[in-house]
Structure formats: structure tokens, C-alpha cells
Amino acid sequence: MSTLLAGTIVKLRVASGAVRRGARSAKNAVLDLAFPPACRLCSQLIASDRDFCQACWTALTASERQMRQGCERCGHPLGCRTQDPLNQGLDHQAAVILESQSDAEDEPSGCPQCQGETFHFHRVVAMWHYHGLVCDAVVAAKYVSQSPLADALGRRLGVVLAEQLSEDRPTLVTYVPSYFTRQWVRGGVGVRTIANAVASTLGIPSPSLLRTARQIAKQAWLDDQERLHNVLDAFQIRRRFGVLRSPDLSNQHILLVDDVFTTGATSNEVAKVLRQAGARKVTIGVVARTVRSG
Ligand SMILES: [Zn+2]
Ligand SMILES: [Zn+2]
């Protein structure tokens, strides 16, 4: 092929790419005019590259820095004991624990909130404190009509997890399933949408690995002890091809996504099932975590 012909082909390809990009941006401009981009929480008009208005974004992310400095085992924000809501400083006890975590080989050593607890998961990464507008967002994201909100929460969680797990990357993402009658009432599975958005941000697969084996009462209605009994043996690995085959989880580091972490009873029970099925490690990734003051 002559140099002249090759140069002409390259120019044509560049030109067609520019035309396609121009058509795409023109299409987006028309869509923006017909359906102006709005905050996924309060419906205020926003720029097309945003998910939330500035006021909602500020309220949602107010605790993000504090939560990133939390216990590497249970995700509890150590600095909250200082009564300093935005964590301008950790107390001495918390600082000592953080130091011991960095010395540990692989297993995080925990904090006063989780010492003595037995977990089947390796660690918890909690993005935000379950409080105020974060509660409204998490509850709304459970409903299918709010799937763009669930998707936005999942993409942000994916960014946080990519940073927090950069040296220990998971190989699969899955999610905590809910009982089918609850899915039917809500019209969908918000947590699955969040998990899919996390997986696409991290660039790893997100198979539906689990199912509920029986009806489960809402954990929010129960005390700590009742929560443990409520979820005991309530989850199973979803089998493919009838009962003949389960997915091979051996040597997988599974990122288990949920919307809220409260006592950890549900996450721990699901992690137990995944470990029994062969998973090498289970890490929990949640949009929000409750914070206990005691
Ligand atoms: Zn807003
Ligand atoms: Zn802890």
C-alpha cells in the first residue's frame, strides 16, 4: 500500500471518529434539552456530568473522610469517640490501634468496637456514616423507580473501594440477596444495582452468587441477639443447572456489597456461606454504616 493511500485512510478514520463524537454530543445536547439532568435526590437541575446538586453532595459525603480513617476490620470510625463529627483529630487510643493495624501482616487487628468478635469476612469498607440525608438516599435506592440513584451510589462506592483495596484487589463482586416478596414489593433489587455499578467501576464480574433460603424479618426491627437468629442459615449459594453444579469460588477474593452495615450479622452470615463454598477471602463494601457511640 502506498504511503499516500495509507495516509488518506488514516485521515478518513480520524474524520469519521470526529463525526461520530460530534453526533453523540449533539444527541446528548438534545437529550439534555428534552430531559434536563437533575439531582438524583432533590431533582434540582444540575450539570450533565454530575449525579447530585452541590448541597446534596456535601451532605452525603460529609462523613467520607472520617469513615476512610476507620477500623480496617469492622469499618467503625475510630475518631467518632472524640465527639468530633468531621474527625479533625483521632483520640490517642484510636491512633495506637491504627498504628498496630499497619504493623499487622494481613489480618487487621480491630478496634474497641470489634475486639472479641468473630468475623468470617476479612474487613469492612464503609463509605459514609448512616445518618441524615445518607439514610434517605439508602432507603430510596431500594426501589426500582430510583435505580439511577442506586447506580450513582454504586459508582461512588466503586471509586472509594478502588482506592481502599488497591493493594488487595477482589476478583468478584456479589451482593446480599433479599427475599423475593420484598423484591416484589420494591419492584427490584437496589443492592444488585449498586453491586453492578461497583463491579463495572472496578472492572470485575458481578455474578448473582446467593439466594435466600427462607423468609427473613427486617433486621431493623430486631435487637442484636434477634438479628443473629434471624439470618442464621438463611442464605445459600445459588446453584446453576439444578442441584448439579455450584460456581467454583476456590481462590476467589469476593467483594460482598450491601447498602447498610449495622451489627454485621447479615454480612457475617453471608461471608460464612461464601467461605464454606471455597472463597479465599471476603471483603464487605457498604454505602453506609451505623456508628455506635458506646
Ligand atoms: Zn440535590
Ligand atoms: Zn473494629
Automatic annotation (TrEMBL):
Residues 193-289 form the Phosphoribosyltransferase domain. Residues 30-78 form the Double zinc ribbon domain. CDD domains: PRTases_typeI (cd06223). Pfam families: DZR_2 (PF18912), Pribosyltran (PF00156). Transmembrane segments: none annotated. Belongs to the ComF/GntX family. This is DNA utilization protein GntX.
